[in-house]
Write a structure and sequence with these properties.
124 residues, alpha+beta, four-stranded mixed beta sheet, 6 strands, globular
């Protein structure tokens, strides 16, 4: 998913996790251990018309970087990069907080990144 601002992306990611937590997987005939991992990154992307699928797509190095975060994110969590966390701080966003996790090796040997755990602030 591509967003115009960090707040909208943060809200969507956490709302997806919250909604998934309300599902009774056993009642739906699904494995109870199902869980979602979400990774977020902020950076420029290129909007293109996909000639194969005949629809709008986004491409570029920052799309690849975002894709390398999800596999290393613990289940039921949202990890974001330093640029994402910094933009939330610059927006003075009081709805969310980003706790530093550490320098984490990304998937597919893409390199190490400073990662943050995204969560809602207390009181929401």
């Amino acid at each position: 998913a591509v967003f115009d601002d960090a707040h909208s992306a943060a809200r969507c990611a956490l709302e997806m996790q919250e909604e998934l937590a309300t599902i009774d997987f056993a009642a739906a005939g699904l494995p109870e251990a199902m869980a979602l991992r979400i990774g977020g990154h902020l950076g420029p992307v290129h909007r293109v018309d996909d000639p194969i699928l005949h629809r709008l797509a986004y491409m570029g190095a920052h799309v690849v970087r975002a894709a390398r975060i999800e596999p290393i994110t613990p289940e039921r969590c949202v990890y974001v990069t330093e640029s994402f966390a910094a933009m939330l701080a610059l927006e003075d966003d009081q709805d969310f907080a980003c706790d530093y996790v550490g320098v984490t090796e990304s998937a597919k040997q893409y390199g190490a990144m400073r990662m943050f755990l995204l969560h809602r602030t207390a009181g929401l």
